[in-house]
Write a structure and sequence with these properties.
Radius of gyration: 21 Å
CATH topology of the largest domain: Aminopeptidase
Strand order of the largest sheet: 1-2-3-4-5-12-6-11-10-9-8-7
Distance between the termini: 23 Å
Number of strands: 12
Strand content: 25-35%
Shape: elongated
CATH superfamily of the largest domain: Gcn5-related N-acetyltransferase (GNAT)
CATH class of the largest domain: Alpha Beta
Structural class: alpha+beta
Number of helices: 7
CATH architecture of the largest domain: 3-Layer(aba) Sandwich
Helix content: 25-40%
Number of domains: 2
Length: 304
């Protein structure tokens, strides 16, 4: 029988948790400073964590760590960590720990349970919808651009139309992933764009591009250099719908990688929202590793 015992002191778990995450970030291509920044964000996101030992007939077989935080007025639970020691894996303890975490969070008023994965979790979280992935690639050499595709700086006149289109696309991505309602997504888009590019085209360390082929605009790009030490973040590399299916997506990625190197960074990072399998497949085929995958499931109110 699987039992759970909440720890009074989670210091050892915290040390091991951070060691494992730093190793995972480094394996994906992040440098030490960037990996540490990712870990800091992980700490902030987790909040106050409760750690429980997983036991079988009194013997410790693993651990599960959970937290409940306020997310824009809604209580959300989070499985921060879940692991079963190798000799005891595959005996049902993982599912029991997941079920315990769901019940623990629901009892504290959470209406949603999130989990962040840094490696595949088998079938354990198949019932949790993929809300998004953070992807990254270390750029070891300048990419070769696709023949006929060029990129130039965006003009001020183009920027105003572009930012309105980007907000609409961003809202659509959030809603499609199931993360927020449309009204919540619109408010988030307004906040995020105001925070990220307060000076528009003049915002420091940002690159805004227009992609062209045969004298026609085919898409746009938006990148933030120094998002993490040595890492450029690709907020958007967009190919217009009527120009898709011609290899321009790969061309946009190559331009983004060139801009990353020109901006003084050596790795390019993206977020791809759940439900956008086309982008996920493109990132996989171009060598972008999953740094983190976020999933969630709705929770019914606790009967307690």
């Amino acid at each position: 029988m699987t039992d759970f015992s909440v720890l009074g002191d989670s210091t050892e778990w915290q040390k091991d948790f951070e060691r494992r995450h730093l190793a995972s970030y480094a394996a994906a291509g992040l440098g030490p400073a960037a990996a540490e920044r990712m870990l800091e964000a992980q700490r902030e996101r987790a909040g106050a964590v409760t750690v429980a030992e997983i036991k079988d007939a009194g013997t410790r077989v693993g651990h599960v760590a959970v937290a409940v935080t306020d997310d824009n007025g809604t209580l959300a639970g989070r499985i921060v960590d879940l692991g079963v020691d190798a000799p005891h894996a595959g005996r049902g303890h993982e599912r029991a720990a997941r079920d315990w975490a769901e019940a623990w969070c629901a009892e504290r008023g959470a209406r949603r349970l999130d989990v962040g994965l840094t490696e595949p979790a088998g079938e354990l979280f198949d019932g949790y919808a993929v809300r998004g992935q953070r992807r990254v690639r270390l750029i070891s050499s300048p990419p070769q651009p696709l023949d006929g595709v060029t990129a130039r700086p965006m003009t001020e006149a183009e920027y105003h139309e572009w930012v309105a289109s980007e907000k609409t696309s961003y809202v659509g991505d959030i809603v499609r992933s199931g993360s927020l309602s449309r009204e919540e997504a619109v408010r988030k888009a307004d906040r995020d764009f105001a925070d990220l590019i307060p000076e528009g085209l003049a915002t420091p360390d940002h690159t805004f591009l227009v992609f062209e082929a045969a004298g026609e605009q085919i898409g746009t790009g938006w990148l933030k250099h120094g998002f993490l030490p040595g890492v450029t973040y690709g907020y958007s590399l967009h190919v217009r719908e009527q120009h898709r299916g011609r290899g321009y997506g790969r061309a946009a990625m190559a331009v983004g990688e060139q801009a990353t190197l020109a901006g003084g960074d050596s790795a390019l990072m993206f977020t791809v929202w759940g439900g956008n399998e086309v982008a996920m497949n493109l990132y996989t085929s171009t060598g972008y590793r999953v740094l983190e995958e976020h999933r969630s499931i709705g929770l019914a109110p606790s009967a307690a």
